[in-house]
Design brief:
single chain, 165 residues, mainly alpha, globular
Length: 165
């Protein structure tokens, strides 16, 4: 799926379900960058029959459970699950992420919301990597691919003029 399509069919509808303070250019960049890093927006099921699901590659006992139970995201997650017709329990949300890109994008934004740090400024690739590593906790991180993918996300959101740091 190309980035314009991801924004239109997953990210915009997801952010519309959340408080407006969660919809920022920096959040959109991070959603795109993390999705590119995790699945290239091609895979809704982890390659090699792994446990992750959805374009943002959530695991049932990791990100899904975290978003459903964290004090900063729990209320939002339960409301979003109701709107999307999914029982707000990890056993129901996890498989739904594979087919509901709006739910997946919402959970991705909420996982970032649980982080104690502010979102990095648009163009701060290193800060973006650090947020991603803290919140997604990838088992096999690939920092060598991050900067280019993050750059694609910045350009798509409209920040080609923003200096990358």
């Amino acid at each position: 799926m190309d980035l314009k399509t991801v924004i239109e069919v997953a990210i915009k509808p997801a952010l519309a379900l959340l408080p407006s303070k969660m919809d920022t250019a920096a959040a959109r960049v991070m959603l795109l960058a993390i999705g590119l890093q995790e699945s290239r927006f091609l895979h809704r099921r982890q390659l090699g029959d792994g446990p992750a699901r959805g374009l943002w590659q959530f695991e049932r006992g990791g990100g899904v459970r975290g978003v459903l139970t964290h004090p900063a995201s729990r209320e939002y997650a339960y409301r979003i699950c109701t709107v999307r017709g999914v029982e707000p329990v990890a056993a129901a949300v996890h498989p739904a992420l594979e087919t509901d890109d709006v739910l997946a994008a919402t959970f991705a934004r909420l996982l970032m919301w649980t982080d104690a740090w502010s979102l990095p400024a648009m163009g701060d690739a290193q800060g973006g990597w650090e947020l991603y590593a803290r919140t997604w906790r990838p088992g096999k991180p690939h920092p060598q691919t991050w900067a280019a993918l993050y750059g694609q996300a910045v350009a798509e959101v409209g920040g080609a003029h923003v200096g990358m740091v």
